Amino acid sequence: MSASPRRTLAETLKAFVAHWGTLVAVSSFLVYLFGYLSLRFHLTTLGIETDLNLLDERYLFAGARFLVYTVSAIPILVLLALIAVGLAAPLFLLARIISSWLPAPVGREPAPRDVAGLRALWRRPATPVLLGILLATALIQLVMRQCFVMSNLLVRETLPGPDWLQALLLADNEAVRSLYIAALLAALIACWGLLMAALGREPIGKPWMRPLQALLALLIAIAVLLLPVNHGILIAGKTVPKVVVHDSNYGSLDRCADTWLIWNGSRLAVLSCREDAGAASRWSLLMLDRSIEQQMSIVRFDPILTLRFRG
Q1: pTM of the model
Q2: Angstrom distance (rounded) from CA 43 to CA 150
């Protein structure tokens, strides 16, 4: 009996090694795909058209940053779950103590009928898949797709989108955005749990169950792809270096009171220019030859969108 766990572990390691190449290839593709979505939508948010090709190592770095940020939100979920359990456990214990003191009702079933009805409803094969579809659809339509309105922000006069999205984008406290990503993860985990519950039930006499399960799986895949999009728009690259250019050959910089380096591509450097420091300052984007980086010095790092829309 003692050799069984070791044998199981050995078989698991053997299978892992046998499929190592496939796992590395799939993982690399996913990191690259997530990085592509995150970086591309981040640049679209700022209003930058770059010279990035389809194959570029920056996508891998962006994907790695997205995964690290997302994984770092998992401890937040665990902490919130522990807090919820810590608050609910004393209340539940107190309710049990109070109920034990009260006399039992005469002629009434031990379990209320509404609770029994809810349990019977949950045991139906269609319940988890329908709940999952409703939750995934609401998550995509009402939350995750809202960030698509955030585009070309550095050349806009006003900030688009609903108030909650604007507050999230311009929040000074990074914890707010971390909680947002953690909430998205929690919703995705809930959708995945409902899908697993639906797959574990036999759709006897219900041929329409399989298409519904496939639809829920598709919605979850869409939500997973929207996660790096939200990261690129709302999280990534909120601080950029404020720079001073020591080159008189660029006459377009003469009107700039302040400049920030927004993007440093393979051929072009994109600077954000604020023409004056007043309340009604005018902003523009300048695309200059990449050689300008040899005449630049970094002064500090600023939250560029906060400066743009809060002054």
Answers
A1: 0.81
A2: 11
